[in-house]
């Protein structure tokens, strides 16, 4: 059975979806690359209807799952606030940057299974950040990573083994971050560290020693 394509979308308290357009573009591109059917207009209609149908106040997480045959499933849940200080650790196992599915957000992510199972019991650790087999900084299991050097923000290129996140794309397009091959040394010596994802935006984190 083929994995499903995933888009995890922020629905604000006013039922806006600021990054929806970028999510739909990425979904359509992934579907084309991997041979999935994707009716973009139908998907957008279903997503907007699900967002408007939410009854609880406050922001929500909307998870869109697309099967190879084009069937779409939507799941929603309230988006709870994070603890004030969020920390990261460097993951003990490297990623294989040559794995083609690293560039696509799908339900087949076995390289992150242990981390995803471990994180809920450690609420102050937002993510584990991975290096690849060459020692280059890649990404977190649910986030892109940014390092501040000489007053500028840098994030690893996709070629290092990371998902082209929609929040990451917005930051790159706005010139707020720039692609650069980075190392664990860059992470440890950074002036500041941030993560980003579509639900939480772009936010500061602290690197904790294991």
Automatic annotation (TrEMBL):
Coiled-coil zones: none
InterPro entries: Aminotrans_IV (IPR001544), Aminotransferase-like (IPR036038), BCAT-like_C (IPR043132), BCAT-like_N (IPR043131)
Keyword Transferase: yes
Record keyword Protein biosynthesis present: no
UniProt keyword list: Aminotransferase, Transferase
GO terms for MF: transaminase activity
Name used for this protein in its record: Aminotransferase
Organism: Bordetella genomosp. 1
